[in-house]
Amino acid sequence: MTEYFDTGHHGYMEKRSADFARFVVDRIWQPELDSYNTCIELGAGIGRFTPPLVERFDRVCLIEPANAYAKVLEERFASARVTVSSDSAEQFLEDWPQDEPVLLTAFHLLHHLTLEQRQSIYAFLIRTRSHGVFVEPNPWNPLILLQVLVTPGMNFDEERQYLQLTRARMVDEIQTVGLMMQHYRKIVALPPGVTDICLSRKRDNMLRLAEGLTVFPCAASYHSYHLTSQESADREQS
Ligand SMILES: C[S@@+](CC[C@H](N)C(=O)[O-])C[C@H]1O[C@@H](n2cnc3c(N)ncnc32)[C@H](O)[C@@H]1O
What we know:
- The protein has helices spanning about 20-30, 50-55, 65-75, 90-95, 115-130, 140-150, 155-160, 165-175, 190-200, 205-210, 230-235, and strands at about 40, 60-65, 80-85, 105, 130-135, 180-185, 220-230.
- Helix 5 (about 115-130) links the parallel strand 4 (about 105) and strand 5.
- It is of the alpha/beta class.
- Helix content is about 40%, strand content about 15%.
- Strands 3-2-1-4-5-7-6 form a seven-stranded mixed β-sheet, with helices on both faces.
């Protein structure tokens, strides 16, 4: 089977600014995440969403099986606090030697994985009592489909699973293995390119106003899912 990371260069990942990444991470942030020292980012690509993670955590592990992308990550982020691994997410999590809870995150990864691969991520969250935050394209937003069809480096066959990965499907998948969805949010009301332009022109008011649009199912670009076990949710609250 050809894996997503075998298929070469995905140039669209280079387009967004670090301010865009910070904007997204601010929107998914919850106070309980401040209690974690370590963040593991699965499928980090070339680090489109990594800068705010490196700014917020003492220790960051970037997991990226495409060797060419892993090299870029090493050049951009490697330091005493940041490590880069070119294992697959499943392998890395299976070999993870520690038991203490971490923040496990991934941006635009879950829809590239099989159910079995996703289940290995859910099993890790349960085993280590960790908190998972996953950002996925909004399957109800028609502009995303357009973007997949017209963007060089994007390919419908590689992306199609995002259309099935609805919130209801996520809830079904995680409940079967004993996780719950602690928070869910629709984020990035305007298309990412427009959001990035607003950020570069300091039009924060416009972005705040636009957030109201996310009441419409098709308006947000992304869905964010916070997955935990009941035990970790209780620990975070105590
Ligand atoms: C759509 S890209 C997203 C990259 C980055 N998170 C971003 O948003 O720019 C998906 C990334 O996941 C990586 N990937 C694919 N299968 C993976 C797996 N089994 N474990 C870890 N990463 C994987 C790919 O190589 C690719 O870099």
